[in-house]
Glycosyltransferase family 4 protein
Amino acid sequence: MRIAFYAPLKSPNHPVASGDRQMARMLVKALRSYGHNVEIVSELRGFLREPVQENFDALRTKAQQEIARLSELWARDGQPDLWFSYHPYYKAPDLIGPELASTFTIPYVTAEASYSNRRNSGLWAETQALVAQSVEQAALNICFTHRDRQGLAEAIPNAALGMLAPFIDTSAFLKTPPRSAPARLVTVAMMRPGDKLASYGMLAKALGLIGHLPWTLSVVGDGPAREDVTALFAGLPAERIEWLGAIEPAAVPEFLYGGGIYVWPGFGEAYGVAYLEAQAAGLPVVAQDIAGVPEVVRHGETGFLTPPGDVSAFAAAIERLLTREDERAALSQAARRFVLDERSLDTAATRLADLLAKVASS
């Protein structure tokens, strides 16, 4: 199929790395691996940081310009077979695809769309209504988590829903066996206000409770809250913490292979691609049983998920893996098998192809 791909939150070509950009790129790669002709049809970023009407009006004007441009292009060169919209939600609704799909009578598909009743106020109520309309129009809405599926099903009962488990490109992890550095804790996370800063804060508090153990922590990440993040760890021995800043995505696997346990509380995580990457490198995970994290970490099998907000429990889970080598090794092996066998790009591509084949034949 010829697929028009659009990510209103962040284009796969966006210069700033993030989990959203990474998943957009992997979806494109998965679609192309099955022979689909995938074109990223617009670079317009439909993200609204705050509910400001003036900004939204300007965005809608730009979206209409994109609709006009693509309409002219398709009328001249032929239309695609399907529109694929990645991650439309209240802060980044798809303002282009639904109208074009309707005008050119092609299937409209979303992946990782979400809906939250808590956001139905002010301008967000308007943008969520647009998301709901696009989800209802869609021939298929591909959900990555059961939480998102439930949210869509409750808000839009007529929505056509399918499941695709979060996945990563495991090719960088296949040839290198796990290495053992059990006392080296590692994490990969952006440094920004909100949930990320809250997770760093919880991690710092937890490490403060296990100072009697010989751990070190290596952190990959940077961002506008860097000074706030480092201040949270000021009470811990500086020689135990290594701040590596931002690194290229291609360097992340080698970094993870140098660790022993992946530690990240995960406030607000949709699911967390980094958890899958860590497990692919053979690192058991310590995280919270919160948001979408249980979709990518199996409690007691590939890591430990602790009660939300319970710093003592989080610290105890880290201590358990630091002091029980046999258990840590067993979880390490299970974590690697889980991702390589069940969450690879090849597995996801097959599932995605099956889902889209049903859309094409309907």
